[in-house]
Amino acid sequence: MLRRVMMCSLLVVIATACGSADEPVGESSRFILSQDYPLPIVERDEPMLPASVTDASGTSVTVTDASRIVVLNQA
Hints:
Blueprint: H1 2-17, E1 51-54, E2 60-63
Antiparallel strand pairs: 1-2
């Protein structure tokens, strides 16, 4: 009998713990989106070319033309 009471009590605790939250799903503010804040205004810079860089393996790269460079993040 004691075992049955313990099992029922355990099931009640588990069922209560799996209940719904006070906060409705879909209305939480877990993420900050970029449209929530204004983007900084920056002046358009002209590249200082040619520019050279040497990577970790020792390969030297010189950029002479910026027309094919794609900006992925403008912020």
